[in-house]
């Protein structure tokens, strides 16, 4: 986001928050500059001073959402790989343990609405690709650490990361679109089974019985 | 779909196909009764005769899409469970082997657009839930058969079905929104690894080396 020394940071932050509220309230299809101005309690002119077009505003807004999302999923690099993996899974399913700036499911719903526009918008695709790469890279690094430490089997880290990423992605869309708040919990169970039943070395799993 | 003896079946089928073309061309946000009438090459009156409102038309349209989708994923019940599972995965990723009535990715894009409206529409949610249950039930039955035949480990079939379902769901959204036609292939690889590395009994996997 472009910053200035004249308090325009604050205004831009206020516009982003107003856009978020307007999106949550009206949905993407009914999101207008006027509805954002109403939430901001200012005229449309103030918004246009910072963003030429609605498209420019939405591109900045997606960047803003993805930055919030990436702050939310930061994990402790010193924890053991299996613990880090489960923390990452939990955070992507339920939001950060310390409540972030946004309600997790409202943020997920807002992101899904913008994602659905991505087939029609190259800039949205570019930003989302970057975000996906960031998240997948976190999974790859964690799986690689686990293999290196002898905790995980010698799987293809990219393949494992891809599986975890798409599962979480699918769970989120399922939960948001069908408003099923049991999906995250079922997904946590499935993925724990995959982490301990497939990814972790069998020795770690059957230690007591294999003598 | 309501049927009649006056050729209204054909008209309704033609309206559904026109809605599909209009959706693919204009996207959900710009889908109007007029754009559908243009594709149908008839007046809006013809559409209104069959469907009172745009909402009623879209509910019928979602049913139509989901029926096409369910016809596309029918599998051979007599094939061995692991083969059936892979066929189901393949079909959900790449469409039916014998090309269905619709282009697979166009159908997926159209469905995603309607799914994104589901948080705001109870009837959409009801239909999609039913469809999800149908697909998940196919996975559950296949995993249960595999366990019964001693081919799969004694996992929780619901949990395995959930994992497969959300992965495929997530892969589809990923591929459609970011227009990445390599995602389906990467997902196929990940899920084959899960089927053979986790779900199948280790004996089946290491048969040659365990003597």
Automatic annotation (TrEMBL), chains A, B:
One of its GO terms (molecular function) is DNA-binding transcription factor activity. Residues 9-69 form the HTH tetR-type domain. It comes from the Archaea. InterPro entries: BetI_C, Homeodomain-like_sf, HTH-type_TetR-like_transc_reg, HTH_TetR, Tet_transcr_reg_TetR-rel_C_sf. The keyword Ion transport does not apply. Keywords: DNA-binding, Repressor, Transcription, Transcription regulation. Pfam families: TetR_C_6, TetR_N. This is TetR/AcrR family transcriptional regulator. It comes from Natrarchaeobius chitinivorans. The lineage of its organism: Archaea, Methanobacteriati, Methanobacteriota, Stenosarchaea group, Halobacteria.
